[in-house]
Amino acid sequence: MVLYVSIVIATIITLVGVVWAIADTFAISGKLDAFLALSLGYQMAIVGGFAAGFFFILIFFLGLARKGIRVILKITFKPREIEEKYQNKTIVKIMAGALMISIFVIIIGIILSLILEALLGSEQAFSITTIFQSFDSTGPFVLFLGIFLLIMNALAFSLNWLWYNGYYFLLRLVTDLEKVE
User: Fold this and answer.
1) Which residues contact 171 (CB under 8 A, 6 or more apart)?
2) Going by C-beta distance under 8 Å and a sequence separation of 6 or more, which residues neighbour residue 130?
3) Partner of 10 for a Cys bridge, out of 45, 97, 150, 168, CB 3.0 to 4.6 A?
4) How far apart are CA 170 and CA 80, in angstroms?
């Protein structure tokens, strides 16, 4: 449920970032002053439009919540059969866990280096202020934040799937190696 809610929040942040980035193409600054200069009717229409869009997205995600959670759980946790002799083997669990953690560190390191390379280039050192300064306005930053959260959700889902299925793959590999001997 937490993964699904985080996907919904990341999607909403991404959509807000898209709207904000589009608004920034017309005027980088002064949007609040322009909004406050409008008549009360226009202000109400704009706020109502944003609220309607937000609640439409919220209803859409709530409608998909039950089915979406079921699909995620069905994909991630398929029933598996383990041979009796490997069900309580601590050494096999430790080996599989250590290998999976090593794979996770490699994947996260590659993704982090690609993101930093894309944002900062190869010459600059990593700094949070450098990332903030690379955006001209707030809209693209919010869009980047939403996309980053979606990528982190996809990474969490993928690593969860890899952990669950990789463990059984390693147990199957050990079983096959023992059968050959």
Assistant:
1) 82, 83, 86, 92, 96
2) 119, 120, 124
3) 150
4) 13
Residue with tokens 């608004």: 23
Alpha carbon distance 166, 173 (integer Å): 10
Cβ-based neighbour number of residue 23 at 10 Å: 14
Q: pLDDT at position 120, please?
A: 67
Residue found by looking up tokens 């096959």 in the block: 176
DSSP 8-class letter at 138: H
Of 104, 115, 126, nearest to 148 by C-alpha is: 115
The sign of the dihedral angle between the CA atoms of 135, 139, 140, 146 is positive
What is the maximum alpha-carbon separation in the chain?
83
CA distance 146 to 13: 5
What tens digit of pLDDT does each residue of 117-142 get? Answer: 776 666 655 565 666 666 667 777 78
The type of residue at 78 is K
Q: Between the ranges 29-38, 85-94, 164-173, where is the mean pLDDT highest?
A: 29-38
In terms of Cα–Cα distance, which of 121, 143, 142 is closest to 130?
121
The tally of CA atoms less than 13 A away on the side-chain side of residue 83 is: 14
